[in-house]
Amino acid sequence: MRIVKLAAALLSLALATPALAEEPFKVIANPEVSTDALSRSQLSDLFLKRTTTWPGGGKVVPVNLSEDSRTYEVFCQSVHGKPGSLIHTFWKRVAASGRDTPPAVRHSDEDVVAFVRSTRGAIGYVSAAAPTPGVKVIRVGN
Amino acid sequence: MIRRFLFTTLFIPAIALVAPPAAAFELADGRLNVGLTGGAAYARTDHNTFARGDKEGQYDNTSLAVAIIGHVSDQLSVVGRFDIESQEDGAEIDWAFAEWKVNDALRLRAGMGKHAFGNYGEILEEGTLRPFFDVPHSMYGPANIAGEGYTGLGLTGFFRLGERWGLSYDLYGGELDVETSNALARIAAPALNPAERFVIETRDMIGARLGLEMPGGLVARLSGYTGVEEEYGTVAEGVRHTAAAGSTEYLGESLTFRAEYAYMIEQNTETTRAAYVEAAWLFGSGLQLAGRVEGSWSKIDGFTGSSPNLRHREAAVGLNYWFSPEFVLKASYHLVDGNRFAFAPFPEDGTVPSPIPEARETTQLYLVGAQFSL
């Protein structure tokens, strides 16, 4: 009987997992971007400027939320697999060696949406509850 | 001198504290990026002159650098950086080059670039990217191993290997400036000024660095270069200079760890082995504890005797306080054995005193300082 209860508990936990795994952020892109879905590693490369061209052509313009934002931290952990402080260090190193500059920064969801909507090739992220009029929501895969 | 020290340690870092948490300032709608870095330190030794310190106590250790990255177009960037150091006359250009991006795996560079060598070669002046005030002397001091910068052409790029692995590369050629001291020459000629340093111009140089990024934040690097030296000191023109290094680096949220080993051959003149291990732990309060051991062992061709000038062994502990990622206060203690980089005090004007001062084989250095970047 105990085994059945344990199995039922594990099953209910497994069924509950997809809801728990739902991202607390939305990835958004300029409507002219033809890509509909990206894996986490593809997203990471876009935001670390290791991939700078969209698969269909055109320059990628990433935009970050400011580092004091909770969504920024969640995004870094989920997409880069590292805390925001290490991504900050990554950019300091890249800039100090003259290799590149970090993405643009906006301080609110509204500002990110406005930037992405008005900038060709732009990609950003906002909190899951934020309204995203005039931009395209990108599906995030593993 | 003290006023300059206070200006650099207090006033400029105050700007770093109130500045927004960004790596640099953006201008011209993001097409121009300006970064400012610097620091100041007070260092004192028990007898010898070593690194930034001497036995009287040295305040004159301030530096300020400005880096500018300009994106002329999607493909073309121009990059420059100059710095001013209190112990040098005038401003010095660290690097100035143009980069043409063919694609993400291939970028072409022309001009004066930083030396892509080991863990620290490109970020020697960036004090907020390391746990000690200075990079390890055995590899990056006047050790005849890592270069200051090269003038010529370079290629660089990055490849993704699977989901979480990556490979970066640098290939470069031209003329490389490598700094050394006359510590080894002083074995035969003790009257030479030990504070004098040489920048060896190594021409017809080619070099490369490969960096393998592994899941979890570990990076392994292989670097090397070879070229032909211009005449300097007692070393004749045309001597082949070759160096190689294996490096590893782990950057975690609390733990940072770096280790490197390098081997240098100056044909028919000198061979040097150098290594260090460095680790630091950042506590949640901003306090960081750091430790480093390093060593350098040289051999001079045709010389079979022993001399403390041939070796440098150093153990160091450091305690840092990070106000933010852009501003850190550092204190460290260094215990050194050998006179490869630690030498007897000589008059600053270069005159040879009589009798010639004797160096002690062991040196203790105490350093406090501040470093910032914004």
Give the helices and strands, then pairings:
The complex is a heterodimer of chains A (142) and B (374).
Chain A (H helix, E strand, L loop, with lengths): L1 H20 L3 E5 L7 E3 H8 L13 E5 L4 H11 L3 H13 L7 E3 L2 H10 L3 E6 L8 E6 L1
Parallel strand pairs in A: 2-6, 3-4, 3-5
Antiparallel strand pairs in A: 1-5, 1-6
Chain B lengths: L1 H17 L6 E3 L4 E14 L3 E2 L11 E10 L4 E10 L5 E13 L2 E9 L22 H4 L2 E19 L3 E17 L15 E17 L4 E12 L10 E12 L3 E12 L3 E13 L4 E14 L10 E14 L2 E11 L4 E2 L18 E12 L1
Antiparallel strand pairs in B: 1-2, 2-4, 2-19, 3-18, 4-5, 5-6, 6-7, 7-8, 8-9, 9-10, 10-11, 11-12, 12-13, 13-14, 14-15, 15-16, 16-17, 17-19
Textual characterization of the structure:
The complex is a heterodimer of chains A (142) and B (374). By secondary structure, chain A is α/β, with parallel strands linked by helices. Chain A has helices at 2-21, 40-47, 70-80, 84-96, 109-118; strands at residues 25-29, 37-39, 61-65, 104-106, 122-127, 136-141. Chain A has one domain (23-141): 3-Layer(aba) Sandwich (D-Maltodextrin-Binding Protein, domain 2). Chain A is globular, with a radius of gyration of 18 Å. Chain B has 374 residues and is mainly beta. Chain B has one domain (2-373): Porin, CATH 2.40.160.10. The longest helix of chain B is centred in the N-terminal third of the chain and has 17 residues, at 2-18. The relative contact order of chain B is 0.17. Chains A and B meet through helix 4 of A and strand 2, strand 4, strand 5, strand 6 and strand 8 of B.
Structural class of chain A: alpha/beta
In angstroms, what separates the terminal alpha carbons of chain B? 24 Å
Whole-number tally of structural domains of chain B: 1
Q: Give the SSE string of chain B.
A: HEEEEEEEHEEEEEEEEEEEE
Count of β-strands of chain B: 19
The mean pLDDT of chain B is 90
Average of pLDDT of chain A: 87
CATH class of chain B: Mainly Beta
Parts with pLDDT < 50 across at least 5 consecutive residues of chain B: 19-23
Rg of chain A, Å, rounded: 18 Å
Shape of chain A: globular
